[in-house]
Write a structure and sequence with these properties.
Chain lengths: 436, 145
């Protein structure tokens, strides 16, 4: 059991490390209050310089605190570019006097955010956001802006309410949020170091947890799979061990190969099923063996072979002392679900193979039953192959989720849109008798 | 494997920028766009956490967020048109009579800078006698809706 008790010193430790954060906040407040529109005393060059300095300090702090945003160089570059577009567009929107230019800057900010959505494996969100925001909202508002264009300086565009206090509120909020993120990322580290077992026992409750192996040695198998070069606390969500890869590349390849073979099984099952039985059984045995390499074999089903599979060897912490049950390195909901899937496939894999073998060895094999078994088998493998990571092709899953589990919410959103349409017409309606 | 905190930081920065704009700017449309910027910051958080946990619920929530934003934009547009028809301005301070009880009204003390006069390009130009000097019409200040 691990205690998440914040030691009293954690706040002071956080304060000491938050110096750059305070500096960035102050710089941003100064820059923003210089840049915000006002009739007199706007200091554009100084404001821009202060804002850029604030962004630079924040970027360096982020990099120092949490390392690179993405592991590959291209991803990092893209992240920086999209972030720059989003933040630059947002800042321009806030300080721009001309609202039409502000709207265009907002469109750029949206494009930046859409790029970040792409990096987060959300292509559908990217498309939807571009269409709704950069398309519909911006065009509509530009339309209104054109209608309400004023010549020369005006109250609404050339004055601000409390530039200094307003920017102080906004940026102090950002600084506070980042500081809390900093603290919450650091807190489990201290909790982990104070108690030897950061991860609770997974299989049994109440038993004394196994003493954690030394971190470097115990978690070494995981570190070989991912990129190296980042050292973090084991419970840190961003750290390699915290976000330990669920499936390595080799395991994924094996699962994909099994999947491909299962999908191509219809060709194997063509023709007279009573002929070439050995060849067909061998085909399915290859599939079974591929899966056994990854998920292992169930002990009671397969005689003589009780291999654990590469997943179990990597994800489950061994215990050598008697009376203690093994635990998963990662103890979160996702990992538990994944582990249940693995165990299910371990049993089902053998069962499906046995069914196929029995059917093929029968007097008159039924191709329908064989196909059904193969489809069920394939579905299990498919579920496991997609686990752990969001694939880039999430659109169909998203659609499925929307119209199965969250159907009521979708309906409600539709009703909301309809009401908004009606409401907009009613609100914008001219009263009767008013001249055009 | 992604750095969750980086995305959260970008979301926080966008939210803060939007908050600053919403608090300080006086043009209704700019204020609305700043509020949308805040929504984007929140959406980024949802997507990042969804990615972290390998679940689609985060993205799903953003879709509802976008739907709500679209509905909001439709209503806001209608409201802005109505407001503009009545006051001939999108200045939010014109509507400060609906402020809280006991709060002083804000008064703009500093005068706006004088409008830069549009230079008459044709002034002083001597046209040949055969031609006729075209009439220069300054732009209308407000185009009526």
């Amino acid at each position: 059991m691990h205690e998440v008790v914040m030691e009293p010193s954690s706040v002071t430790v956080g304060l000491r490390t938050a110096g750059p954060l305070i500096l960035a906040t102050v710089l941003a407040v100064i820059g923003s209050s210089w840049l915000l529109p006002r009739p007199r005393g706007r200091f554009v060059a100084g404001g821009v310089a202060a804002l850029i300095a604030a962004a630079g300090v924040l970027g360096v702090w982020l990099h120092h605190r949490w390392g690179r945003p993405l592991q590959d160089g291209v991803g990092t570059l893209l992240f920086i570019m999209f972030t720059a577009a989003a933040v630059l567009g947002g800042a321009t929107l806030v300080v721009q006097r001309n609202p039409a230019r502000g709207a265009i800057a907002f469109a750029f900010a949206i494009l930046g955010v859409c790029g970040l959505f792409l990096l987060l494996a959300a292509p559908f969100l990217m498309a939807a956001t571009i269409i709704v925001y950069a398309g519909a909202i911006i065009v509509t508002f530009l339309f209104v802006l054109m209608l309400s264009r004023t010549a020369g300086p005006s109250d609404e565009n050339d004055r601000s309410r409390e530039p200094l206090l307003g920017s102080l509120a906004g940026f102090a909020f950002v600084g506070l949020v980042l500081w809390i993120e900093h603290l919450s990322a650091a807190a489990p580290d201290r909790a982990g170091s104070s108690s030897p077992t950061p991860l609770a026992d997974m299989t049994t409750t109440g038993s004394t947890p196994a003493p954690a192996p030394s971190r470097a040695g115990g978690l070494a198998p995981a570190t070989t799979n991912g990129p190296v070069g980042i050292t973090h606390s084991p419970n840190d969500l961003t750290s390699e061990k915290g976000l330990m890869v669920v499936l390595t590349r080799q395991e994924r390849q094996k699962l994909r190969e099994a999947l491909r073979r299962l999908e191509a099984a219809t060709e194997i099952l063509q023709g007279d099923l009573r002929l070439e039985r050995e060849k067909r059984i061998e085909y399915f045995e290859t599939i079974k063996d591929l899966l056994v390499q990854v998920v292992g074999a169930a002990r009671e089903d397969e005689l003589g072979d009780s291999s654990e599979g590469s997943l179990a060897e990597r994800l489950v912490r061994r215990v050598h002392a008697p009376g203690q049950s093994p635990a998963l390195y990662r103890n979160d909901r996702q990992m538990r679900q994944f582990w249940e899937q693995v165990q299910q496939l371990r049993v089902v894999n053998w069962r499906h193979f046995k069914q196929v073998e029995d059917q093929l060895l029968a007097e008159s094999p039924s191709s329908e039953a064989l196909k059904q078994t193969v489809v069920a088998w394939r579905n299990e493998v498919m579920l496991l192959a997609g686990a752990g990571e969001l694939p880039a092709r999430t659109v169909s899953s998203l659609g499925y989720l929307m119209y199965s589990e969250y159907l009521l919410a979708v309906e409600l959103a539709g009703v909301l849109l309809l009401l908004a349409t009606v409401g907009a017409v009613v609100v914008a309606q001219r009263p009767k008798g008013e001249a055009a | 494997m992604i750095g969750l905190w980086h995305f959260l930081a970008v979301g926080a920065v966008l939210f803060g920028l939007g908050l600053t704009g919403l608090l300080t700017r006086r043009n209704l449309i700019t204020m609305f766009l700043c509020a949308e910027l805040m929504v984007q910051g929140v959406a980024l958080n949802f997507a990042a956490f969804g990615r972290l946990h390998g679940q689609l619920e985060g993205q799903l929530f953003v879709i509802f967020l976008v739907a709500v934003a679209a509905a909001e934009a439709a209503i806001a547009l209608g409201l802005f048109l109505t407001v503009y028809r009545q006051a001939r301005s999108l200045d939010v301070s014109l509507w400060q009579q609906v402020r809280e009880d006991g709060v002083e009204a804000t008064v703009d003390t500093e005068p706006l800078p004088a409008e830069r006069s549009r230079p008459d390009l044709l002034e002083g130009v001597q046209l040949p006698p055969a031609g006729r000097r075209p009439r220069f019409q300054p732009e209308e200040g407000v185009i009526r809706v």
